[in-house]
């Protein structure tokens, strides 16, 4: 039976991986022109005493990509400016509210207190106060904008570099730019709406340290979170309640109360403990420095799944108190852990059936009812909404939370695969959950949620890897269970099955995952050729020049159109302060190789 479930799961995964990879390539080939198709993110630009970051990047790409380089946008630390802009918008919103209030009753000027939450402080005219505050913030924003543009410390050693073709961008993003592999690091730029601008201000050299710190923090969060969960779940049982509160024994013995405690209370307690977990994991991912919303959600989803695996699955199948659980894994030898898990898995089937109904079925019902957004809307409408713009923002349903929804579905895959051969009675509950989830999420994605970004199925390799992990865990649990039943002869066959499963994962990773990591040059060239045939006079520079400018600089850019006209007419040859030449063997401090200056190269090329 284990072989049948494994082979069927692997067959479906293989076909699905092939289908998703094909759909991804087809989508990339058929989608409309987007800035990220022509742009790469360059990081860890080495400092140069002769040139600014912008000049250094421009010189490097004019020298090393002379036929394909188009334009660049340096990355600046505008986090303080963004905070000022956000504060100004809030003040403007309050001003609109008070002006609307005054227009409805012009006989009475609105007043407010300037202290904490408007409860204390000096009483002032609300309209005049907010007008003066907005003027003050406008001056601060203008000063901060100029400081960011002129202060070299505000310019980060990174830039968005755009090329004349998709093929050139693919070559740059997927190749090493310098002989030093730690400098001039290139990667595909996320689409502009996917960029997480705050993290672009984090120095690249600190990313490794940040990720190490978060890995250690996540380890302690995962394993020490098991202690309160297991302790409260121990109390959320009849024996635990009678031991902690003997005076409730007569109440607990009532049949209805006993059925609630045995059936739903442990699952509800576990669900309550997991409410704040996604927010914590997202904060940790942001601290690590990922530069796109999609990568933030992918990292959060991975950690959410690992947390559920350790605390919800392993933490729930090992009976006893928190310290007993820790002692079980610490004091036992590694050979006894599969046996411990195998014995405990069938005993906890009832708990997981309850958990599926409480978290799965009820969660899907709450998803279609949109209870959480509905409650938040009424709270915002009562306390925060002041204008129609506020009401529109309060009614926004947001986007589908991949960092929470996808790991939760993966947990039910794990439960289904583990109990398929051990306790098949749990499978109908899993099937009902997936049926409801398919109908509900399909409706929500099409009709309700907004699409925050487009990752072109970049989540799928992670999903595939987690299903394979669930398969291996189910096989280890089955090995442990059969070893207690005197069926040790079956162990070699199950070990062979686990080895085959891991080999299947390696095969799929090598065969299909490159389609999710790299873009084929053939597809890029085909798309470029078709575009040149349809639009021979297409000028991409105005389209790409401000595509990756920080949002706070776009708002007051009144001269953008005039600037774009100037860009179309300017020369592509940019003078450099560097002294490197093509005919000199001295290596460039920027590229690490003997490279020429562009003017001499152009002069030689123009000679008859």
Task: Give an account of the 3D structure.
By secondary structure, the chain is mainly alpha-helical. The chain has helices at 2-30, 53-64, 79-104, 126-150, 166-173, 207-224, 226-235, 238-244, 249-252, 255-263, 265-273, 277-288, 293-317, 322-331, 337-347, 349-369, 371-383, 388-395, 402-419, 427-447, 460-483, 491-512, 514-517, 521-534, 541-545, 551-554, 560-569, 598-606, and strands at 39-43, 69-76, 111-113, 123-125, 155-163, 185-188. Helix 1 runs parallel beside helix 22 and helix 13 (293-317) runs parallel beside helix 19 (402-419). It starts with a helix and ends with a helix. The model is unreliable at 319-323 and 556-608 (pLDDT under 50).
Key structural traits:
608 residues, four-stranded antiparallel sheet, two-stranded antiparallel ribbon, 28 helices, globular, disordered C terminus
What is the strand arrangement across the widest sheet? 2-5-1-6
Structural class: mainly alpha
Unreliable segments of 5+ consecutive residues: 319-323, 556-608
Oligomer: single chain
Number of helices, where a helix is a run of at least 4 consecutive DSSP H or I residues: 28
Q: What is the C-alpha radius of gyration, as a whole number of Å? A: 30 Å
Estimate the global geometry from the Cα principal axes.
Answer: globular
How far apart, in Å, are the first and last alpha carbons?
78 Å
The proportion of strand residues reads 5-15%
